Amino acid sequence: MLSTLLLGGCQKNAPDPPYYRFSADDRRWMQHQVGDEWRFENGRGQQRVYRIERVFEKLKQNYDCCPISGPALPFPGSGSRVLYQYDQWAMAFQRVDTVGGASGTIGFQRPVAPEAPLPEKAPANAVLGAAGGWQEYIGSPGQSGRLGCFELEWQADTTDVNLRPSTPLVVNGQRYDHVVTFAAAGQPNDCAATGLPRPRIRRLYYDRQYGIVRMESVTGEVWDRVR
Question: In a 3-state reduction of DSSP, which class is residue 31?
Answer without folding.
Answer: coil
